[in-house]
Predict the 3D structure of the following.
Amino acid sequence: MHSILGLGANHVLFAALISWFVAQALKIPIYHHVEHVWDFSRFHGSGGMPSSHSAMVTGTALMIGGLYGFDSGLFALSVVVAMIAAGVRRETGTQATVINQILKDMLLNGKKISDEELKELVGHTPLEVAGGALTGLLVAVIYLLILFA
């Protein structure tokens, strides 16, 4: 039986969490660069550049490869999960766009059905997914370099 204290030595988990944190933090200056407005709520919001979910799963996969081998089944599984996660996030955004258009089409008389549209920010563009993957990759590489220095 393993102790819960083993979490303190779980480098894969730390790299995943750091990847998420870095991606979320990067959303603030990137949003400012594009919109010319400081919006610190972007840190805890979903969607946007870079994808923190992509950063997390990419950082996880790279750490698993670095620690357990890029030829391991665990690394293969983590890559497959990362690919599925990226696809699901992209589809979510596409579906939100379509649903919002349907709602707009239904509102021909100008009456609102709800106060808030379906949140299109949940999904990601391919560029946002790539940005998140690059963020996770960089965090994991730096983490591995520090760990094995």
About this structure: The radius of gyration is 19 Å. The CA atoms of residues 67 and 148 lie 10 Å apart.
